[in-house]
Write a structure and sequence with these properties.
Length: 368
Amino acid sequence: MSGIDLGNGVVGAILGVVFATLFQQWTQDIWFRVRRRSAGMVRSLTYREQQGPAWSTFSLGPLHTSALVVEGDGDRAIAPESVHVQVLTEDVELPAEMAGWRAEIEAEERRAEAAGERRPVWNGQRYAVESLEVTRTALDEQPEVHLRLRPTDYYTFLAAQQLDRRMTDGSTPRTRYLDAEQPLAAPAFLQCSFAVNIAVVTSDHLLAVSRRSSRVRLAPGMWNSSVNEGLARHIDSSGRNAPDVYAVARRGMREEMSLEPHEYTLDLLAFVLDVDKRHWSAHFYARLTDMTGDHLRSRMSRGVADRWEHETMEYVPFRSADVTRYLLRPDRIHRWAPLAPSLFHLALVHVHGRASVERAEAQAVRRL
């Protein structure tokens, strides 16, 4: 009997250990399943909390701008035949209260001229952007850009730039007419500016960077693209023809740098919107074929039609690391015109390739 009892005791002890082990594994399995499920819920909640608009404005490390790249990634140029411009016949019409702001501007310019205080601001003929739509060709998915414009003038533009001025009901043009979640939806009277911005690179690989004059009305003293030229109705629309953005770019190269079309190549990289001020831009890259930085400086020293628009011209080696460090310099990072950093980034991508540029940018940001 004692032998049997001993055997039963050993068997019982073994069974106890087995059951205890199985119970421990079972409880651990339940615990890990609960943890995984909880972690999944946390990740899901975190993901939902971080969701935002599909598009965001251009940024590079600590440099944040209000430039929204609407079409173009710098990799492939947009062909001239892919840009279709239509001019609508009816002029932009301001809402009644904002029309009063325009009247104030006109009256002040007339008063200043009559008093001999200064020359009045010229009320030049401009275009407002009714819409910009992008489609893709069926076979090779190349972009087709459709730009619709309306006639307007400079005084209307200045009135519409008062986006944060209070109206009689307490609202502002920004809060009344714009939706931050739909950046491309805006009335034409708030978009009375379309310009070309060009990154000019010399034959010895130097990027020209300009500083705007303190005498210009918009962004005085800010660092900007090599060339910035606004669309003008009286110049860029001969007869009944719609303006050609390439022709505007060539005019800017001639007026601001004294360069003729045979001296450079020209590529359209993107269409970009400054969502803060509602300024539209066609971003171009221009490569000088035989002219070095020294030759360009010498050429410009002999006269430039629109010299008054720029105070300074600096030349930066057109390498990804050099341009990125220049953009992020402490004395530059808060002094950029909103559209310039995106222009220089896209130009770098166009020449050096996206992977190489983004790798160099990431390294430069980490070293700050």
